[in-house]
């Protein structure tokens, strides 16, 4: 029996109608065409989680004595837990990623939902083990500058400090570089590449 892949695509920019959206739309098209079940969270049109003001907002409720999550945040957390694969599509801003994406991560990668500290205070459980992820990013800088000047900061943060910490294995990182200097034809090949990645991730 074949298991249908459940893919969550997070569009990590607050600006609508961008190249990032064209890439994400093409990825979704490829994944849907290959039989995956796909959900999309678009931070340019859907609410961006508010900055947490209390410790309770950094963790999912442990029992009925804890405050419930904000309904919108709960919807995002539920989508994350539903997915077997998560793809982030985002632009590089200031060497990392937009604050909108950081706010999404802070609001959804919550203790007791994506990881859980051991009562002893030593170690933690990775609650999203078995899931995979892909990163698709655009940037105006060349790849060599991103590597040597920025130390691949956005990819390292997402892959190691966030996804890996919660047990998600990153299976691919795609960088589309020097966006401002590329022709429409080149951007078109990028869109085609995103479609192929969606097809691959659905299998």
Search tags:
5-stranded parallel sheet; Rossmann fold; 37% helix; 7 strands; 203 residues; 6 helices; two-stranded antiparallel ribbon; globular; alpha/beta
Description:
The structure is a single chain. The chain has helices spanning 19-33, 71-82, 99-108, 143-148, 153-166, 184-202; strands at 6-11, 37-42, 85-91, 115-117, 124-126, 132-138, 169-176. The chain is α/β, with parallel strands linked by helices and 203 residues long. It has one domain (6-202): 3-Layer(aba) Sandwich (Rossmann fold), CATH 3.40.50.360. The strands form 2 sheets. Strands 2-1-3-6-7 form a 5-stranded parallel beta sheet, with helices on both faces. It has a two-stranded antiparallel ribbon with strand order 4-5. A hairpin with a 6-residue loop joins strand 4 and strand 5 (124-126).
Enter the CATH topology name.
Rossmann fold
Major pleated sheet: 5 strands, parallel
Level-1 CATH class name? Alpha Beta
Strand line-up of the largest beta sheet: 2-1-3-6-7
Helix content: 25-40%
CATH superfamily: Flavodoxin domain
Q: N-to-C terminal Cα separation, in Å?
A: 14 Å
Radius of gyration: 17 Å
| Mean pLDDT across residues | 95
Structural class: alpha/beta
Give me the number of helical elements: 6
Q: Per CATH, which architecture?
A: 3-Layer(aba) Sandwich
Molecular shape = globular
Identify low-pLDDT runs: none
